[in-house]
Amino acid sequence: MEPSTAVNDPVGISVIVPNYNGSKILRQYLPFAVAACEAYGGPSEIVVSDDASTDDSEAVVESFPLCRFVRRAENGGFSANCNFGAEHAKHPVLCFLNSDAKIGPEFLVHAAQHFADENCFAVTPLGRTVAGNHVADQALFMSWGAGKMRHATMLSAEELEAANYSPPHLCSRVQGAYFLVARKKFDQLGGFDPVYSPYYWEETDISYRALKLGWHIVYEPLCEAWHEHSTTISQHSNRIRRVGRRKRSQIVFHLVNMHDRRLLTQFVVVTLLNLLTLKPSRLYAFASCLMRSTQILRSRRRAKREAIRSDKDVIDWGQERITNCSK
Predict the structure, then answer these.
(1) Domain count, the chain
(2) CA angle at residue 286 from 141 to 200, to 5 degrees?
(3) How far is CA 239 from the centre of its chain?
(4) Which of 65, 106, 130, 199 has the fewest CB atoms within 10 Å, i.e. the most exposed one?
(5) What is the reported pLDDT for 1?
(6) Which of 236, 259, 288 is the last residue of a domain?
(7) Which of 290, 279, 283, 280 has the alpha carbon at shortest distance from 252?
(8) CA torsion angle 276 280 284 286 (round to 10)
(9) Would you tell me how many other CB atoms lie within 10 Å of the CB of residue 209?
(10) DSSP string covering 82-98
């Protein structure tokens, strides 16, 4: 049975839109966020967190209702900018929304109900591409294979229900372009870890740490969103650097979060073997990790200290669902 679109005693929601020189994109996509806030009926706001833009983003934001513009003094990348926006948000639920993404009018209505569960960390939606309306994001699950974390196995609500997993559908991680999170839990985890700056894997990291604390991530297919996918990142960096940063963040994730010695050893061996290929992106990633080794060690100690579930427990949970849905 579908939940009612009426929200009793609705929780306040702050929509946080990270931006960098994206005035054209904001003009195109902010109206959808405004419409979702107006349809929600509960307390809401839109905070456009600006990463030291030099265009007319502020003027664009000020032309829309419900929107506030907050600017960082210097450019710090996606993670730092999202955290900055969260610091300026007023409400107990945060909705992170990429500037090149749009949400359906009842997006907030369907997501809000899940935060009545005190163990709910986050809600992630059904995502589609802007071009072609193709399904791009559903319930995402983590598993282990070939010596590394596989963090994007996607299952539909229909597949989960066919395998006798009834709603609400729990999953392993959020999709970083659009998701909602309980602010207290987000703050408890310290927000997005700046070790991943400027971008990539930060949403996988915070999802994994939340699961290891025993919290839930809910996939809600009635929440619909659309994303242009990498539009903002592609505008501001070349391909080799983007690939290098993605591989670097993948290495950082494992060094920070893999506390099972067997799994960590597997990953280190695979990583060292990959370096022998001498591909520029892999050399860039390795050198970049060495440069932030102190920060990685600090994050690892914190993640290990706060975890109450093991790596095996979290990974096996996701693998079980992948396996059962493939039968």
Answers:
(1) 2
(2) 40
(3) 22
(4) 65
(5) 32
(6) 236
(7) 290
(8) -10
(9) 23
(10) HHHHHHT--SSEEEEE-
Are residues 183 and 317 both part of a single domain?
Answer: no
| Of the candidates 97, 164, 100, 108, the residue with the CA atom closest to the CA atom of residue 130 | 100
HSE, CB side, 13 Å, CA atoms: give it for residue 251.
28
- Give the model confidence (pLDDT) of 253-262 as tens digits: 999 999 999 9
> Do 102 and 211 lie in a common domain?
yes
Q: Round to whole Å and give the CA distance between 213 and 5.
A: 31
Last residue of a domain, one of 183, 201, 236: 236
Cβ atoms of residues 201 and 288 within 8 Å: no
pTM of the predicted protein model: 0.93
CA pair distance 39, 61, nearest whole angstrom: 19
Q: Are residues 69 and 192 in the same domain?
A: yes
Going by the DSSP 8-state scheme, the letter that residue 29 receives in this structure is H
The string of pLDDT tens digits covering residues 46-97 is 999 999 999 999 999 999 999 999 999 999 999 999 999 999 999 999 999 9
> Which structural domain range is residue 149 located in?
13-236
Residue 70's alpha-carbon distances to 61, 73, 89, 95, 177, in angstroms, are 10, 10, 10, 16, 19
